[in-house]
Design brief:
45% helix, 8 strands, Rossmann fold, 240 residues, 11 helices, 22% strand, alpha/beta
């Protein structure tokens, strides 16, 4: 995985939310939470697994809505932040935070109703392995996001040493089919990369986001969108 050592540092976990989801970044946080809820809600009394849960932004949100949720991450420091977030929200009894490897999930087949991952597949060296594991432990639904190869992310990647893995629609569909998943919905957003919104104040971010959303609703906007959200269902065994 790209950036694994950086991600696990205590200082990164402590500052993660403040650096990424304040100022213009709050628009990213809001949209990502909307995307998760649109894909997986309602979750009351459902068993949910979040891969790469980080500081528990989505984990706590779904626990507040009644999910019995496990948040799995490779970073102890991130998990500590998640536990504190759950404690403050009063939902610790609905969440189990675990340190683990997304390529070898420590759960039996069909253990969860829904499995999802946000901000994960752009770092994946072997996405097929991770997606296959997500499909294996889910009995119903898988949801994740990707960064796109037809967007401004191409330039963003060129400027950053670590970069991100970029995907096209056809590649995602192949990955889903190989994992035994069928695509049920896809949504595309953010013509301007996340990094732009994080750097600007609210007074600039708000009008830019409004224009971004309008353009994103066009055919060209969907092609140039930097982020895609994918919802898939687990295919039944045709032999039964």
């Amino acid at each position: 995985m790209k950036g694994q050592e950086w991600y696990q540092a205590d200082s990164v976990a402590e500052e993660y939310d403040a650096k990424r989801f304040s100022r213009g970044g709050r628009l990213i946080d809001r949209r990502e939470k909307e995307a998760v809820l649109e894909a997986v809600a309602p979750v009351e009394d459902e068993r949910v697994l979040e891969i790469a849960c980080g500081t528990g932004r989505f984990t706590a949100m779904l626990a507040e809505r009644g999910a019995d949720i496990v948040g799995l991450d490779i970073s102890d420091a991130m998990l500590s932040q998640g536990r504190e977030k759950a404690r403050r929200a009063g939902v610790s009894d609905h969440i189990e935070f675990m340190r683990g490897d997304a390529a070898r999930l420590p759960f039996p087949d069909d253990h969860f109703d829904t499995v999802f991952a946000m901000r994960f597949f752009h770092l994946a060296d072997t996405p097929a392995k991770f997606l296959a594991e997500m499909a294996r432990v889910s009995k119903r639904r898988v949801f994740f996001d990707t960064f796109n190869g037809t967007s401004l992310r191409v330039l963003y990647n060129w400027a950053l040493p670590m970069g991100s893995r970029l995907y096209g629609h056809d590649e995602v569909e192949r990955l889903l089919a190989d994992a035994g998943l069928g695509l049920t919905n896809d949504a595309h957003d953010f013509l301007l990369p996340y990094g732009f919104y994080r750097k600007v104040p609210n007074s600039i971010a708000d009008p830019c986001r409004s224009t971004d959303t309008k353009l994103g609703a066009t055919r060209l906007g969907r092609t140039l969108a930097s982020v895609s959200y994918w919802t898939a269902e687990v295919r039944g065994d045709s032999s039964t």
